[in-house]
Specification:
heterodimer; A: alpha+beta; 4 domains; 5-stranded antiparallel beta sheet; 15 helices; 20 strands; B: alpha+beta; TATA-Binding Protein; 2 domains; 9-stranded antiparallel beta sheet; 5 helices; 9 strands; 35% strand; globular; transcription (chain B); nucleus (chain B); transcription coactivator activity (chain B); transcription regulation (chain B); Mediator of RNA polymerase II transcription subunit 20 (chain B)
């Protein structure tokens, strides 16, 4: 078959009639032989065009029959050649060969069809049962395929949305974890079972308050995904104990009159309502709760001390208020714990009228500070590391031996003052200080001549503060500065240090200070005259701070000075008392007096140099804005012109 | 902790130790000093054992002072000194093999403590194995820590009640470098006490004066 044109294919079949049926009488009916084209069509129907190489036998059914012997030979040859299969290009050769065969067949068919003598091409008629699909079936199948496609799409979309949600969930989870990390960095947390508990208490800072102070960390992730997430949304929430909710503070105030015990009770002092919303971030919540805890601890400590401490007037503890009397005064110190849970807003707001703020913020602050100091003291007693050989106890107690601390030093550690005692002392001091300031101010505003100046020091101890009081006359500040007082205001006493170092102790009574200042002011006037005399060239004849003669003053003593004019003709005598006021007398020379009482003894002219009688000056009628100015005018008037 | 001077006061002629002490108390009270409790200084002696035989055994003195109640001082004879806490006594028991307690060498000075303004005066009778050996007077000037600055004041004060038997500047202070700020501390006090004790220990018992 290698030579193309040499191959001839005959497509004529031997026509032998087939017996269709044999009748009972023996006659055979034959199937009428197929016509040429019918035969071809039938044959062609059997060809499956989709199958390439395998169907070549069907196509070449006729030639095979015809050239049987030849094909056999070839097959023999093929199998012989095929069997060793050692030749590497064997499959290629075979394929090439089969391709050539097909090409040849195609060529033959085409040439036969071209001649049109033997064969004509007819369209292949489809088998109606196999080829035609009914429309209903088509519709169903279309529907089915569409449904499949839709299902695939839907699955994809579902997967996508799931992954988005998962992402979000993951992010929230991550947010929760990062929030938890932040919480962990600031608060003590521990895990108990499947809960996360935190510690609000100051125990680790040295507190001995028995409140457990635990809070629970809640994962707040079950938020509705569809709704918009609020701005202040936080995946972490904390649950604080109900008794630590809200806000609290310690109120310290000084009350002038002792309140009726019947009136005592819960002090409700919340004037501004704090916003208590659930959406507070956790750190705000925790800080507020911790503050409540500290306030409670302070109050508990104070009330414990109030009960324990014996004092002349016992301290009263009623509900959330401690009242302690500041000794031998009519004032009392009230310390109250104000705790609002923010729930009972309505009935709280109405009855309280806005009152003047009587908080002692300094004391409130000090209370907190002292509590923390107390904590620290507790903590430092067990400070680590600790030498194994040393006894347990405070570090300084441990060091006391090797550093050879003496008795006084050691005993100074032992005395411990309670919180309440300290705060009462501070309150006393504050009260004394404010009262001193008030006394000085009222004196300064009431008395214009001489003037009082008070210079308060800015830096004070909690138990001591100082003020410098200057008594001056207006316009003569430079020459009249004899009275400078340093008032050291302590807890119960005022220590007055004069400029010259004299020390006077005054009690807490307001009147004492006032009297003292009044006497100082009256002395100041006399001092001022003395100073002025020096400046004016007058001579001081006598000077006394405390005159023993004349009317008795109810407060202090009167002081007096006598000064003589430069030429000795005139003399001015001033007596100034804190109560009686000033009295100024001028002594004239005897020569100037007309109606001298005639005496038998002093007839001689030389006696005219004797000093004459005193005459009182109507001081209130003198011109001048203050005492020293008046005195200056008087002195000027009595000094003869040169 | 101020500058401290410890001195020995001779027993007055024809008086017992106790009578002399009472006399001193009276003088101080007349001066205006206020009695403030009592004091006690004690000293125990330890022999260092286990050293090589060629070296003479050193003495270790362990002293307590009621003024520094939590401390314990250990002074080597002419050597370094150590301030420790009260546990040191327990440690010494453990160190028995190295330091042997010389029994019967325990010296004590007990007496009253007086305060006169800034001065702290301690008059004590020195007893050694329950026999009174002499009188010690300790004067402390609390506000100052530099001996050179306040010695004259202290001397003058001591003259007012001790009369002529006023000591010279204690040698511990004299040995300190001049002009430098060399604060006095408890070791100086204890060194002076130790010197006093050693002096009294060597002293023959003046039979008549011992009660």
């Amino acid at each position: 078959m290698s030579g193309g044109p040499a191959v001839r294919i005959s497509i004529e079949s031997s026509c032998e009639k087939q017996v269709q049926e044999v009748a009972l009488d023996g006659t055979e009916t034959y199937v009428p032989p197929l016509s040429m084209s019918q035969n071809l069509a039938k044959l062609a129907q059997r060809i499956d065009f989709s199958q390439g190489s395998d169907s070549e036998e069907d196509v070449e059914g006729e030639p095979k029959d015809r050239e049987w012997g030849k094909q056999d030979g070839e097959e023999e040859e093929g199998t012989v050649k095929f069997q060793p299969s050692l030749w590497p290009w064997d499959s290629v050769r075979n394929n090439l060969r089969s391709a050539l065969t097909e090409m040849c067949v195609l060529y033959d068919v085409l040439s036969v069809v071209k001649e049109k003598k033997y064969m004509a091409l007819d369209p292949v008629s489809q088998d109606p049962a196999a080829g035609k699909t009914p429309q209903v079936f088509q519709l169903i199948s279309k529907k089915k395929s569409l449904a499949t496609a839709a299902m695939i799409l839907q699955k994809g979309a579902e997967k996508l949305s799931k992954s988005v949600a998962e992402n979000q969930e993951n992010r929230r989870q991550r947010d929760f974890n990062s929030e938890l990390l932040r919480l962990r960095s600031q608060w003590k947390l521990r895990k108990v079972g499947d809960k996360i508990l935190g510690d609000l208490s100051y125990r680790s800072a040295g507190s001995l308050f028995p409140h457990h102070g635990t809070f629970e960390v809640i994962k707040n992730t079950d938020i509705d995904l569809d709704k918009k997430i609020p701005e202040d949304y936080c995946p972490l929430d904390v649950q604080i104990p109900s008794d630590l909710e809200g806000s609290a503070y310690i109120k310290v105030s000084i009350q002038k009159q002792a309140p009726d015990i019947g009136d005592l009770g819960t002090v409700s002092l919340f004037r501004q309502q704090q916003k208590n919303k659930a959406g507070m971030p956790w750190h705000v919540k925790l800080e507020a709760a911790q503050n409540v805890l500290l306030c409670k601890e302070i109050f508990a400590q104070l009330s414990r001390e109030a009960v324990q401490i014996k004092s002349q007037i016992p301290h009263i503890v009623v509900k959330n208020q401690i009242i302690s009397h500041v000794s031998h005064t009519y004032i009392s110190l009230s310390i109250s714990l104000c705790h609002s849970t923010g729930e009972k807003k309505n009935n709280r707001a109405s009855p309280e009228k806005p009152k003047p703020d009587d908080h002692l913020y300094v004391l409130e602050h000090n209370l907190h500070q002292m509590m923390r100091e107390f904590h620290k003291q507790q903590l430092s007693s067990v400070v680590m590391p600790h030498p194994s050989s040393a006894p347990f106890g405070h570090k300084r107690l441990r060091l006391a031996g090797p550093l050879a601390y003496d008795k006084a030093e050691i005993s100074s550690w032992q005395q411990t003052e309670g919180l309440l005692e300290k705060i009462i002392k501070q309150a006393k001091h504050i009260f004394l200080r404010s009262r001193t300031a008030r006394t000085i101010d009222s004196l300064a505003s009431r008395i214009e001549d001489p003037q009082i100046q008070a210079h308060w020091s800015n830096i004070n101890d909690v138990y001591e503060s100082s003020v410098k009081v200057l008594i001056t006359s207006q316009g003569y500040e430079q020459i009249c500065k004899s009275i400078q007082l340093q008032l050291n205001i302590g807890v119960e006493q005022i220590r007055v240090v004069h400029r010259d170092g004299r020390v006077v102790m005054l009690s807490h009574q307001e009147q004492e200070l006032q009297d003292f200042l009044l006497s100082q002011m009256s002395q100041h006037q006399v001092h001022a005259v003395q100073q002025l005399a020096k400046v004016m060239g007058w001579h001081v004849l006598s000077f006394s701070n405390h005159v023993g003669l004349g009317p008795v003053e109810s407060i202090g003593n009167a002081s007096a000075v006598t000064v003589a004019s430069p030429n000795g003709e005139y003399a001015i005598s001033v007596r100034n008392g804190p109560e009686s006021g000033c009295k100024v007398l001028v002594q004239f020379p005897r020569s100037q007096i007309k109606e001298l009482p005639k005496s038998d003894v002093i007839q001689d002219a030389k006696w005219s140099h004797l000093r004459g009688p005193y005459k009182e000056v109507h001081w209130s009628k003198m011109e001048g804005r203050n005492f020293v100015y008046k005195m200056e005018l008087l002195m000027a008037a009595l000094t003869p012109c040169p | 902790m101020g500058v401290t001077c410890v001195c020995q006061v001779p027993v007055a002629e024809g008086k017992s130790v106790q009578q002399t002490v009472d006399m001193l108390h009276k003088k101080l009270e007349q001066l205006g000093a206020v009695k403030q409790g009592s004091f006690c200084v004690d000293c125990e002696t330890y022999h260092a054992t286990g050293n090589s035989s060629s070296q003479p055994s050193k003495l270790l003195y362990v002293m307590h002072n009621s003024e520094t109640p939590l401390s314990c001082l250990a002074l080597f004879e002419g050597g370094p000194c150590l301030i420790a806490d009260a546990n040191f006594d327990v440690l010494m028991v453990k160190l028995k093999s190295h330091f042997q307690n010389a029994k019967g060498h325990k010296v004590e000075s007990r007496g009253s403590r007086y305060r006169y303004c800034d001065f702290l005066i301690k008059v004590g009778t020195v007893t050694m194995s329950s026999s009174a050996r002499g009188i010690s007077v300790e004067v402390e000037y609390c506000p100052c820590v530099v001996p050179g600055d306040c010695w004259n004041l202290m001397k003058e004060f001591m003259q007012s009640f001790l009369g002529p038997s006023v000591p010279e500047l204690p040698s511990v202070f004299a040995a300190k470098p001049e002009g430098l700020f060399a604060p006095a501390d408890c070791v100086d006090t204890m060194t002076q006490y130790l010197e006093l004790f050693n002096k009294l220990r060597k002293l023959q018992i003046p039979g008549s004066n011992v009660r």
